[in-house]
Design a protein that fits this description.
single chain, 8-stranded mixed beta sheet, binds zinc ion, alpha/beta
């Protein structure tokens, strides 16, 4: 056993050692700072320890003499990507593979804390500062939950409120409402979020987005959450009853709903008015719904590709109305290789009508705002966390250049991208 004297001695030595100040200077990079502002063409970023110290034009920023200097001529630097819809499931390595692709922070929108133990162990074992993990605890759902293993079930508003309080006490940085929760219970969860100043997000689908947003909901997961808000009430109710009877009825049903939706109709106009007024976050997760017409259709099945085209159109319309669109990759999606779902989501936003710069902001500064971390994440600004990605191309001009990630930094530390690309 270590004596008290030895411990005291060790502490005093540690106290007199000057802490090593880790400084990195990135020179001659194009800088896209995440705010939507035009790139700085020949820039310099100075990083001290885990923070960005200075950002600006190359000739206007002083560099400390003892820094590690990296010449990034021909490269673009953007803030670390934030994936707001990442399901860890039983695959912690996927989070590290995504990190090697530039995803320096993620939120899992519905999972027990136990599922993150192995990932946190791997991060600690490799002495890494990230990826930054934001959790919500399990979904708060109603009876006959859509995903029983990932949910807590609330049978009334009081039980929903108590679940919500318990999840916040256990460290949830947001809460997620699931679609079988009745309206009064959903309102109780929103109330808990507001009391604790954390965002409340939801997979609606059976709950009316217009009512929930008016009641104070901060964010919406999945563009499909808006399906019943875009068709006449008689059709919306038929869909609700079909899904209440069988959760799986939504798989094709949501494509059918969207392919019939009138984006200029009276229902849509009511929705746009509420989006304009409340400006909620929208995490459309388009990549998980992506369908192409070359997928063979069985007789009588809805045209999934047509429904998906309408989902993209609606995402753009919602943003024009005032929704703050963010990026959620959804882990495993049909048209992206392992770990590349967030890249695909960025490309789909551009296919939907967003500029490449708007797509980058969705994955960085707007995503940070949805985490309620606008003062520390999602932008390349002095005082912010030094989370950044170096790419060979110019993703603010051609979004597919996001696939040319060369280096990734979290909290001032370079990540061993070669190692995690094999995960
Ligand atoms: Zn999901």
């Amino acid at each position: 056993m270590l004596s008290t004297a030895v411990v005291a001695n060790f502490l005093s030595i540690a106290a007199v050692q000057p802490a090593p100040t880790h400084r990195v200077v990135l020179d001659h990079a194009r800088i896209v700072d995440g705010s939507g502002a035009a790139a700085i063409e020949d820039g310099r970023i100075v990083i001290e320890r885990d923070r960005i110290a200075r950002v600006g034009r190359f000739g206007e920023i002083n560099a400390p003499a003892d820094a590690e200097t990296v010449d990034l001529a021909g490269r673009t630097v953007i803030p670390g990507l934030i994936d707001l819809h990442f399901h860890i499931e039983n695959d912690p390595k996927l989070a590290l593979r995504q990190l090697s692709h530039g995803v320096t922070a993620f939120r899992d929108p519905g999972q027990w804390d136990e599922k993150f133990v192995e990932l946190r162990r791997m991060i600690a074992a490799d002495h890494m500062p990230g990826p930054r993990i934001f959790t919500t605890g399990p979904h708060i759902d109603g009876e006959n939950p859509a995903y029983p293993a990932d949910s807590v079930v609330a049978r009334d508003a009081e039980e929903a409120r108590r679940h919500a309080e318990a999840l916040v006490q256990r460290g949830a940085s947001a809460l997620k409402i699931y679609f079988r929760l009745p309206f009064a219970s959903a309102k109780a969860v929103i109330g808990v979020c507001e009391a604790h100043r954390i965002p409340c997000t939801a997979h609606l689908e059976l709950l009316d987005a217009r009512e929930l947003i008016a009641a104070g909901l901060h964010g919406i997961e999945h563009v499909t959450s808006f399906g019943i808000s875009l068709v006449p009430p008689i059709e919306a109710e038929a869909y609700r009853q079909a899904v209440l009877k069988n959760n799986d009825a939504r798989r094709d049903g949501r494509y059918a709903l969207f392919s019939r939706a009138n984006l200029d109709g009276p229902e849509a106009q009511v929705l746009y008015a509420i989006l304009r007024e409340r400006k909620p976050f929208l995490d459309p997760t388009l990549a998980v719904f992506e369908r192409h017409s070359d997928i063979k259709k069985s007789n009588g099945a809805p045209d999934l590709a047509a429904g998906f085209v309408k989902m993209k159109q609606f995402t753009r319309r919602a943003a024009l109305a005032g929704a703050r669109v963010v990026v959620g990759g959804h882990s495993v999606v049909p048209f992206a290789e392992r770990g590349q779902a967030p890249w695909r989501e960025l490309e789909l936003l551009v296919e939907s009508g967003f500029s490449p710069m708007e797509a980058i902001s969705a994955a960085t500064s707007t995503a940070a705002a949805f985490l309620y971390r606008s003062d520390q994440l999602g932008s390349l600004r002095a005082g912010f966390n030094a989370d950044l990605v170096v790419v060979r191309g110019q993703p603010d001009r051609d979004v597919t250049a996001i696939r040319t990630v060369e280096r990734v930094m979290v909290a001032g530390q370079w990540i061993d991208t070669a190692k995690y690309r094999a995960y």
